[in-house]
User: Fold this.
Amino acid sequence: MEFTSRTGAIPYDQRREEIDEEREEKGEMPITDEEFLTHVYDPDDPAVKDLQEKMKNARSSQDDSTDELWPTDQPPSPRTQMEIFRKKDIVVTMQARPPKKGVIILHPQDTVGELIGAHEVARWTSLPKMDSHASVALPDQIYGMMSTILDEVRQMVRSLPIREVKQSVLDQELRNLATAALPEPNQQSLHSHYIRTAGGLLPLILKDNDKVIVEDEVLSEKAMVVRMAAKVDKAVEVDRTMDDDEDMEAEKYPLA
Assistant:
């Protein structure tokens, strides 16, 4: 119970529908999740304020173009515009507070897939960019595990003891998560999809937990020059040794 509801037994969907009907009569857009928080939770609650701030930041960084969600040469219809509005709003909520058990806060009756569709789920988990005609190459089993993957990656990142994490360590941790989540021999083919999806979530989760990725070995320009010079010296030394050996051989076996 991170938040205390103020709506009693009224379902969120019903409360949202009532508010949206009032807004529609006034010619206004539907209520956003950020605004809806103050209708169902205590707006003075620090946890609610923190979540609203995260939503605000996510919304400000979101691309205003609709090409990604609805690529078309024609302007979207009012209904399509409304769908775009709702999907973008849900994405903001997902970025501010990742779903748990496939359910997004303020949308407890529907799964992520039911709300924004499998195609958009694949986009927002940072899978490779697809054009409007491409099909989603995400196996159903991985798609069904989306919320689980989010939770497992988040827990893994939080368990890391230091702020600066080596890329090799993260790669191994993702492989470990994939093996634990898909232990059966017939699930081996799904490992790469799991790792790919989990890896796409890493940057945001690392940022939320104030952690950064560092290279396993970062050499300064000076250190690289010193290393290269050492290699050259070693090569010269080996070359001299070979010359000395040849001189000794010449003395042992002089030409007739």
Remarks:
- Strands lie at 103-104, 107-111, 164-166, 212-214.
